[in-house]
Amino acid sequence: TDRFSFLRRGNAEKLPIQSVFTHDLPDIKGEVALQYWPRRDGSDLVPSQTTLFILGRYPSLYTENCPTDVQETSLLNYYVPFLNSLHALLPPSHAILSTSHIGHTPGLSAPSEPLSLSHQLEAKLELVQSLRDSLDTWSAEAQQGERPRLSLMGHSVGSWFVCELFKHFKQDIHAGYMLFPTVGWIADSWNGRMLWVSPQPLFQNSPQPIFRRPVRSLLSSISPLLGPILPYTSFPPTTLSLLRSPATISHALGLARSELDLIKDPDLDWFRSQADLGPTEGLFGVWSAGNMDGWVGREGPIVQDCLGGESSERVEILEGIPHAFCLSKTTIAHLYTR
Questions:
Q1: What is the per-residue pLDDT for 216?
Q2: What is the C-alpha separation between 258 and 263, in angstroms, rounded?
């Protein structure tokens, strides 16, 4: 069964098109939300390029631009304004598909216990293989000839998934785009230490990290207590759905803890290998300038150098853009469409 047959619907009155992908691995069961922006030219042919967007670990609680006219329970909604803008700037034959993580969408099926980063990666491998097969089958049936391109884009830890998927699928992926990537030593970043890890001697006078045990285990438990006051807050619907779901909070925090434990030394040889690929192929990255990004540590400049440094077209450094906000559509279009 083609689990991506909905991609053939073409244009819809309201974008993005909402769907669900059901994972069916021996040890991993669950559903993830999908949002789809089809090609803009109205053609029923397979898009010449489809970009799969993978969201980050968890969004900021308040986002003014979070839309209210799409499926409110999906955390993907935090990225809809950004992806709407990107979709409008891409060639008309391109399409965008975004995916969440298992357990990160209230109301969808998920295991009772949060999945580790490794298990989430296994699930992404299944999804990308299914998507690659679906696009190839669609193209063959339409006798289009040239194989449709599949690219990856990720924000924050989504960038780590992009890299691991790229390594696995190799020639099946055309390009990868990292937005404020957390691809190494997250536990040593400023936010990693301040929010999760015990303070080092330099920070002895700092407050205890709020996401350490036992506080972390209590956060999902206090969710029901927030119910009476949430209607009086200014949070957008997507944030309200998150705060009303103890299970989603538990899954998001569990994944974040796993990231700190597992994302260590970046694969520098692999990053260097990307610098020699064609001008539209391989890996590209966007970082915040200076100390704006508290989730990116010493690996940021190292990975940038591996990709060719700031003078390379693979590296973009943005002034005044923090980690928690998607960057401007103009800069993305510049990196993505050249």
A1: 47
A2: 8
Q: What is the pLDDT of residue 38?
A: 96
Residues with Cβ within 8 Å of residue 26, at least 6 apart in sequence: none
Q: What residues contact residue 22 under an 8 Å CB cut-off, 6+ apart? A: 3, 30, 31, 109
Which of these, 326, 328, 332, lies nearest to 155 by C-alpha position? 326
Q: Token pair of 41, please?
A: 């030219």
- For 194-246, what is each residue's pLDDT tens digit? 775 555 544 455 544 444 554 445 455 565 555 556 464 555 665 656 665 67
Structure tokens at 86: 């990107």
Q: Are 307 and 282 in contact (CB under 8 A)?
A: no
Q: What strands, in cross-sheet order, belong to the sheet with 94-99?
A: 17-24, 29-37, 94-99, 49-54, 149-155, 175-179, 282-288, 315-318
Contacts of 76 (CB under 8 A, 6+ apart): 33, 35, 55, 98, 99, 100, 105
pTM, two decimals, is 0.86
How many CB atoms are closer than 10 A to CB 228?
A: 8
